[in-house]
Specification:
153 residues; mainly alpha; Phosphatidylinositol 3-kinase, Chain A; 3-stranded antiparallel sheet
Amino acid sequence: PLITRVLWRDFARATDLDGERKEDMLRINVSDLPVPNKDTIAYIILHLKRILLKISNEKQKHSLIKVFSKMMIGNSIINPTTHILESEAAKQEKIMQSLLELSDDYWNRILSHTSTIESQNSRKSIRCSGIELRGVSVGRGIPSPLVNVLFRN
């Protein structure tokens, strides 16, 4: 799951709030997530929102939200009992629905902030064992085969 177990209950509590308070708490909780989780959630939420716009059948929309909520939101504990799985299913869907209600602008800002940082890092290069790696995301330390150019001196 992309929602950490440490923050799971905070996300669940946020969905019990109304209006701006709910939105503010969700944004705070999202900002507390590790960057890879936050980026992935932003990307998936934006993608799902585009898909949901094309689906007119409410039952199909609900099924899509249900499937993704299990994968993205997960459970509050590592090895949940059947009872916990059943009792948390509705809360997972409520969290997912609440994340989908946050504006596209909000999710796009998360992604644009990350791409700005990666763009700045991609201009850097490092030398390792006689091979220069250009376009390495130094901040993350993992070169992307799609971005990097390898060559020997």
